Amino acid sequence: MPNNQFKKGELYSFITGKASTAVARRLQKNFKRAGIDITIEQWSVLYHLWKQEGQSQQQLCDATFRDKPSITRLVDNLEKQKLVKRIPSKDDRRINLIYLTKEALTLQEKTMALANKTLNEALTGVTIAQIDMAKEVLQKVYENLSP
User: 105: domain range?
Assistant: First the structure.
C-alpha cells in the first residue's frame, strides 16, 4: 500500500526542492545585500573547503552532490575570483587539490553569519521537535534511494 497521503505532486515538489530553493534564494539575497559577490553554488564549495581544504574536485563532487563539469566550472570561477587555487597532488599529479586563499578565509565568518541568519528566518515558528522529525524523515528518504 502506498505511503503517500498527499495531494498529487504536493509532497514531490516539496521533497525535490521547494523549501531548499526558497532558502537558497533568501541566502543569495542576503549575500547580495551584504555586498558579497558569490553564488550559493560557489558558497557551497567554499563551505566544504572551510571544513577541510585540500580536497580533490571529485571529493567536492561527492560532498556537494554535483557532477564533475559543474564542479570544474565552479572551481574555475572561484579561481578567477581569487578565492581558491588548484595545487597538483604530490601523490598523483593528475589530481588537483583545491585550497582556499586568504580572501576566501575572510569571507567565512561573514557568510556563515548570513547563512545562520537565513536559517533562523526560515525556521521561525518551527519547533525543535519538528526540525528533528524533518531531519529524520529526509534522512530516511535519502537512505531509501542511496545505493
Answer: 17-115
